[in-house]
Design brief:
This protein is mainly α. The chain contains five helices and no strands.
């Protein structure tokens, strides 16, 4: 069994954890979209490309503000999605031990 078969893909893992938290489907879709845009912006192709988080996140958010001309609330949503992704992928959030979000 290769490592790809044992380790879930990033977006699958994000969806899995968000569903365990009972996040809304709308939030899940928005976060997945922001993560896809982030990956595309940095032309990431491998799991190893996800490193260097803070500088890459800052570059992405700066580009959104300057070139994308997005509202501060939109930029905040993108930041929340990327921080969420980073926590999941770094192993700081393990699905079995996560409590529901309290809604």
């Amino acid at each position: 069994m290769d490592s790809q078969a044992r380790t879930p893909k990033l977006l699958h893992r994000v969806r899995q954890v968000m569903r365990l938290h009972h996040d809304s489907l709308h939030t899940e879709r928005a976060y997945v979209d922001w993560i896809k845009r982030y990956v595309h912006f940095h032309r990431m192709q491998r799991r190893e490309d996800l490193g260097g988080g803070e500088a890459k996140i800052e570059a992405f958010l700066t580009d959104l503000a300057v070139n994308g001309q997005v509202a501060p609330a939109t930029k905040n949503q993108a930041l929340n999605a990327l921080v969420h992704r980073r926590l999941i992928w770094s192993g700081s959030m393990h699905a079995p031990s996560l409590p529901p979000s309290g809604r």
